[in-house]
S-adenosylhomocysteine hydrolase (Pandoraea capi), 138 residues
Amino acid sequence: MSLKDELAASIRKRRAIVFLRSDFASLGSEASLSRALRELIDAGAIVRLGFGVYAKAKRSVLSGRPIPVRPIEVLAPQVLKRLGVKTYPSRLITAYNEARSTQLPMDVVINTGPRRIARKLGFGKQFILYESSTEKSD
């Protein structure tokens, strides 16, 4: 069984939707793992969300291209949790939920509390924006 086949089987068996490259480090060397991940991306089995971050994929009904199985708004908090970053609702979402505003934000904004994040996460033209606050909101 090739590394690509082992990797594809491993991804199919997992319940998780998002994966880190480190999840597959035990399957082979860095070079062969990179090659196998690239082949799976080309085959449409997974999509790349950021550096070392991948998600299960499905075919788009509109374009036929591979897209993540869940929207980026759902996947980003899962990725950040896997990376050990605690997330909170953004200020705009909090204002909407508390009925202080009727506007929903157009961009996906995640509050990371006092921690600053520089990691770029996203897919296609939609990327996650981060806001940090000194006070902890629950």
